[in-house]
Amino acid sequence: MKSTAFKKIIKECVREVFRDELKDILLESLKNNNSKPTITESVTIPQPSLSSRPDPKSLVDKKQAYMDVIGQTAMSFNSSDVGKFNPQGVDPVSGNMPVGEVSLDQITNLIK
């Protein structure tokens, strides 16, 4: 007997065994499924009603309340709140840069 014919016989036998096993599994699951009660779920979707819409007057009140809170916690800064710029770094020649101060006026003049 050639090896190809032998392989063909083995493949057919394995297929038949798998078919029988799957058939047994399916039949067993159908038998077990009939004995157990089925579970059903019901989902209710709430329908929007006219009374659930927000009152425009209450929205204005809410907005005002938020604005009051923001106004109480808001901070305002200007250029006087900014500290002096003191650049420090490393000079490749001497190892240190001289300490210096640059004011905001000098920076704005450089930008112009």
Which value, in Å, is the CA radius of gyration? 41 Å
Question: What's the helix count?
Answer: 3
Major sheet size, sense and barrel closure: none
Order of helices and strands: HHH
What is the mean pLDDT?
76
Number of strands: 0
* Helicity level: 40-55%
- Name the beta content range: under 5%
Structural class of the secondary elements?
Answer: mainly alpha
Oligomer: single chain
Distance N to C terminus: 98 Å
Runs with pLDDT <50, length 5+? none
Silhouette = flat
Can you characterise this structure?
By secondary structure, this protein is an all-alpha fold. 53% of the residues lie in helices and 0% in strands. The chain is flat. The model has no long low-confidence stretch (mean pLDDT 76).
Quick structural gist:
With 112 residues, the chain is mainly alpha-helical. It contains three helices and no strands.
Give keywords.
112 residues, mainly alpha, 53% helix
Element layout with pairings:
Elements: H1 3-35, H2 56-73, H3 104-111
